[in-house]
Amino acid sequence: MDTVRYLDDDGKPLRDIPLSEEELLRGYRALRRARHFDERALVLQRQGRLGVYPPFRGQEAAQVGVTLSLEKSDWLCPSYRETAAALTFGMPLSRLILNWRADPAGWRIPEGVNMIQFYIPIATQVPQAAGLAYAEKLKGNSAVAAVFIGDGGTSEGDFHEGLNFASVFDAPLLIVVQNNGWAISVPTHKQMKVQRVALKAQGYGIPGVTVDGNDLVAVWTVARKAAARARAGEGPTLIEALTYRVAPHTSSDDPGRYRTEDEAEAWKKRDPVARMRGCLVYLGLWDDEKEKALEEELEAEFVAGVDEADQAPEPKPWEIVEQVYAEMQPDQQAAWNYLRTGGEA
Amino acid sequence: MDTVRYLDDDGKPLRDIPLSEEELLRGYRALRRARHFDERALVLQRQGRLGVYPPFRGQEAAQVGVTLSLEKSDWLCPSYRETAAALTFGMPLSRLILNWRADPAGWRIPEGVNMIQFYIPIATQVPQAAGLAYAEKLKGNSAVAAVFIGDGGTSEGDFHEGLNFASVFDAPLLIVVQNNGWAISVPTHKQMKVQRVALKAQGYGIPGVTVDGNDLVAVWTVARKAAARARAGEGPTLIEALTYRVAPHTSSDDPGRYRTEDEAEAWKKRDPVARMRGCLVYLGLWDDEKEKALEEELEAEFVAGVDEADQAPEPKPWEIVEQVYAEMQPDQQAAWNYLRTGGEA
Amino acid sequence: MIAERGTRVINLVQAVNEALDLALERDPRVVLFGEDVGKMGGVFRASDGLQPKYGEKRVFDTPLAESGIVGFAIGMAMAGLRPVAEIQFAGFLYPALDQILSHLGRMRHRTRGRFTIPLVIRAPYGGGVKTPEQHADSPEAILCHVPGVKVIIPSSPERAKGLLLSAIEDPDPVFFLEAIKLYRGVKAEVPEGYYTLPIGKARVVREGGAATLIAYGGMVEVCQKAAEVAAREGVELEVIDVETLVPLDTPTLVESVAKTGRAVVVYEAMRTGGFGAEIVARLAEEATDYLEAPVVRVAGWDAPYPPFSAVENFYRPDTKRVLEAVRKVLTH
Amino acid sequence: MIAERGTRVINLVQAVNEALDLALERDPRVVLFGEDVGKMGGVFRASDGLQPKYGEKRVFDTPLAESGIVGFAIGMAMAGLRPVAEIQFAGFLYPALDQILSHLGRMRHRTRGRFTIPLVIRAPYGGGVKTPEQHADSPEAILCHVPGVKVIIPSSPERAKGLLLSAIEDPDPVFFLEAIKLYRGVKAEVPEGYYTLPIGKARVVREGGAATLIAYGGMVEVCQKAAEVAAREGVELEVIDVETLVPLDTPTLVESVAKTGRAVVVYEAMRTGGFGAEIVARLAEEATDYLEAPVVRVAGWDAPYPPFSAVENFYRPDTKRVLEAVRKVLTH
Ligand SMILES: Cc1ncc(C[n+]2csc(CCOP(=O)(O)OP(=O)(O)O)c2C)c(N)n1
Ligand SMILES: Cc1ncc(C[n+]2csc(CCOP(=O)(O)OP(=O)(O)O)c2C)c(N)n1
Ligand SMILES: [Mg+2]
Ligand SMILES: [Mg+2]
């Protein structure tokens, strides 16, 4: 199976680029914005101003490329690692900060952002995404859903059941597998016997495409085609984005226990952000000055986002028993009363 | 994908048959024996002398062919429909009668018969079979396992997880999918988008073979090859046996609610037992006299089996709380005492 | 309101079928699906005739995968539909327990109200009709330990119809378990047309002062029969149908025990960890002062539901065992 | 015997690690597997150093699929091995619940003793350490409602080591849940070498006459602290560590309540349908005559374990809430 690529490792176009200049610039900006968030989030995490955080460094193009192919009325169904996708999709930056602070204010997804939570239980988002997508189709809308999962996640039964449902019902769904080489400490070749996740599509009678996940142009182009196909009623597409988890699994992980740095180093040379910048520079669309201006803008946005997050009200103890049901029931009411009054129910 | 066939619809060999005369005769005998059981079991069922019974008419070759490729030290992991496989594998006929009477004496699989129960919860046998197979490999034995599942069963997560485990660990396993066209009332084309279940093997990096499931020579040959491959340490094989559930789903089902008789009629022309007899006749190995003698022998065996089953002791109420743990624990003991004394614990 | 309507004598499956029909008719967001639900109309015929009437878009068969069914349904509910999913037997809810425990009841809580899952999951449960293995399980205790879901188990055709319609209207996820034994075992008058019944209320189905029998689903019938037998001996038992297990109507239970001073809790699931334990615990916490004898549980034994038909009825509580328990609480 | 050995001060993960090491050394049938169990030695380091020592055939990583892990383990156990499977967090047992509920504890029963499943499934459970969503679940009640399995939850390094070795020797399937909060939270003396502790026995870990606190796992520590505080005020509380939830040692609980006349049951799972309900139910059935006040439960609220770190500690019972309950039973 071929891997779809548009850029070489330095960002030089290998063939005609099916994106406009505006799109290329918008794409780079989204990449750079995601990278900025990730770098600064890790700093916040080390300062104790964020909880456990799953970095996505190296996977920006895979997430951003897919998300750029979505409309506002589409659905985004991420796993825990898709902060870059969420940011690109329209989740306010301050909310993302709050989310990774495990703050209730961050867990409330704003109206108008059609995103489900960052899911922890692996693969469970896949059948749900199939249901979301199919519901839109039943309602006669043209919306699609994009669901993200990792190479490790493909081993779960829900990945299989979700794909089968999506294919049987021709649900307008993009199943995006970021094959980043690792599932915590387990390398992809111990996770599955196939070399390419995209081969799994053949078991469901749907197209499977492997794309260079560090090539934004390639990911965006492939995802855009899959979304158009889905909107046209032709059903789901499995997209395997070949990439690499350059960073630790989460801020609590120590990759030294299971892998050598060489591998990560090699992948850093194919950094998706640098590659895209290389492309823009090659096309004469970018220079150091623009980069500097962008960086300043992104830092200002980030600082403002953190400020906003810092102003979120302190979570209240009794919030933990709110929103269990649409109407509060007696058991929750009793707990609420107890927590509200600080004890002695 | 090609379908492996050795016999035409009338049983005439299409190419060289890689089985000895003795094997052909043994194979036919096993088929005929299974058919006899099935026919007579349905009669017993209608007489109220059997519980709910899942007939396998039309699928004898798929089940018998695979089982004939197994050794006594191998493992058989059936679903509820594999009575033909169990019979061929060495389960005493009387036990099978008792099993479908839902009698405890029938549920105790005799020592020396390496078979797990007829499983009701769809697909759950697949990861277990992978574990059985891999354990034999770890222990340094050459035993393999054969696990059966239906077309409907392939939709369950456990099918996927089991296949993935088997492939990652190169477990010596035959995964046999009897694609019999239906999962109760749901036809295969609503169960999955692929035309061939064997295509699913590609997602696991293992061989997938489609075989004419009504051609005993083909099934046996394919299964024998897969078993040899497994014993040689080369891992699992997915075998799709194309066949048809000629009978109702179970003795409680009414197929008139969801399908026309035409389809079943067409398949009856490709009856696996008649085809194999056609082959033997063509090869000059069989005649009406032999058939008659065999029938008489099988009927005698069946009658003896039913007699034996009829002599099983009445199940005792207190048996229902026995064998919950290796040693009876207090809660079970209390229940046992109650049931043993007929009440008032 | 209900009293004014005409009624017809139908069984519990027919009542469920009527409710589904009315819900599909009334609310275009309602969709119905599951294994063999469409073309065949369900293995118990609960959706009989509904696919021809409402089309394949609203009533359809799914692949054979329960986690897929529930996950798919959760997605559809988030997208604004009102899915009613059938799981063929309650014992086949097990493959879906990850979707159920990880998501179903957490969605509203974790999204702070942004998303809710107005999903009804129906499943036949319980024993007594010589089904194959795993077809007679009673896993309600597990469902009742899932935060954020409601659990309803009706005991008659009339209650089933009205409660199912309430469940479909409810904004929260609801499990709706139907006792297989009652499907065709009992016929009763059922009001015509659309009506709902309150979720979260237990009902006194027979009044009496000697002791309280607390049950739900298929065990209500058993308790009523026991009460009839006792009445012949001059012992008047109160029978309570819990009906909604979560949220549990503790006050109605406590009130009855305050009156009778004695209670027997009856359920057919395995005794240890069954939902009856929660009922007893609530009585122990809130009704101890009224209790004149220890509460007694009558339940399935601590063993799998026996796949051995000839003796399966020794597992499921019957009038004999209920009456023995009554004697115990009366003679303490 | 244990008393004669040397001891060392280690934490609970280290105790588990020692037990696994000794089991692998002693019995060639023991195999260890799960997600990240091999190369990495487990996300909590429970299998640290064991793959290098025993090789990839006996200690290995599996694909990311819990139903697969449990099903695979069941198959291995049937083939005569002694698998010890790790599920990374108890909340990830959910995808495996079909294998667990449909097969694990039914195998011996349905095959009338031909097959048994000597399988140990270990998983960290419980809250209190600001883990991400779903990493703090306490699903023990569900496991206790599975017929044919045993459920053990140790409360200290010493108990964990000996009980885990017993579990691995046991012919029946055993769930072994380890409180995450105790993993590194508590260090204590642990005997060296191989020793086992009895399954199915509750332990009085502190004697007292005023009231009985009943707990297991991470809640034992909370109860012991509460007892210390109470003791300073002159109130002597008895603390019982249930340790084996199934089979439950009811007599030890009843005996204590017969002495104290008052009981508080503490667990961190969601209150409704939690295992504490079963404990209360047994006391209600067997100890009512001794009880001078209604039993009180202190448990997690009827809500998901909050994924909101700043306030998660208001969910999990603490000494304050336990002492409030004690006051309640003492002043009834
Ligand atoms: C059902 C379930 N099992 C286990 C885990 C623990 N876990 C979290 S992330 C992870 C590895 C996921 O790997 P992959 O799917 O490749 O995604 P990546 O982390 O590489 O983005 C594991 C095992 C989980 N969250 N859910
Ligand atoms: C987990 C689970 N879900 C549902 C069922 C109910 N059920 C029994 S057989 C069956 C259809 C199976 O079809 P298939 O796998 O094709 O096997 P076949 O009956 O054709 O042999 C269904 C839905 C079940 N036994 N287990
Ligand atoms: Mg990965
Ligand atoms: Mg089939």
Task: Provide the gyration radius of chain A in Å.
Answer: 21 Å
Distance between the termini of chain A: 64 Å
Q: What oligomeric state best describes the polypeptide chains here?
A: heterotetramer
* CATH level 1 name of the largest domain in chain A: Alpha Beta
Give the H and E element order of chain C: EHEHEHEHHEHEHEHEEEHEEHEHEH
Give the CA-CA distance, first to last residue of chain C: 44 Å
What are the defining features of this structure?
heterotetramer; A: 345 residues; alpha/beta; Rossmann fold; 2 domains; six-stranded parallel beta sheet; two-stranded antiparallel sheet; 13 helices; 8 strands; globular; C: 332 residues; seven-stranded mixed beta sheet; five-stranded mixed beta sheet; 12 helices; 14 strands; 20% strand; binds thiamine diphosphate; binds magnesium ion
Structure in words:
The complex is a heterotetramer, with two copies of chain A (345 residues) and two copies of chain C (332 residues). With 345 residues, chain A is of the alpha/beta class. Chain A has two domains: 3-314, Thiamin diphosphate (ThDP)-binding fold, Pyr/PP domains (Rossmann fold), CATH 3.40.50; 318-345, no CATH class. Chain A has helices spanning 21-46, 60-68, 83-89, 93-100, 104-107, 125-138, 157-168, 188-191, 216-231, 261-268, 272-282, 288-310, 330-340; strands at residues 3-4, 75-77, 145-150, 173-179, 182-183, 186-187, 208-212, 237-242. In chain A, the strands form two sheets. Chain A has a six-stranded parallel sheet with strand order 1-7-8-4-3-2, with helices on both faces. In chain A, strands 5-6 form a two-stranded antiparallel ribbon. In chain A, helix 7 links the parallel strand 3 (145-150) and strand 4. The model of chain A has no long low-confidence stretch (mean pLDDT 97). Chain C has 332 residues and is α/β, with parallel strands linked by helices. Helices cover 36% and strands 20% of the residues of chain C. Chain C has twelve helices and 14 strands. In chain C, strands 3-2-4-5-7-6-12 form a seven-stranded mixed sheet, sandwiched between helices. The termini of chain C are far apart. Chains in contact: A-B, A-C, A-D, B-C, B-D, C-D. At the C-D interface, helix 4, helix 6 and helix 11 of C face helix 4, helix 6 and helix 11 of D. Bound molecules: thiamine diphosphate (2 copies) and magnesium ion (MG) (2 copies). One magnesium ion binds next to strand 5 of chain A.
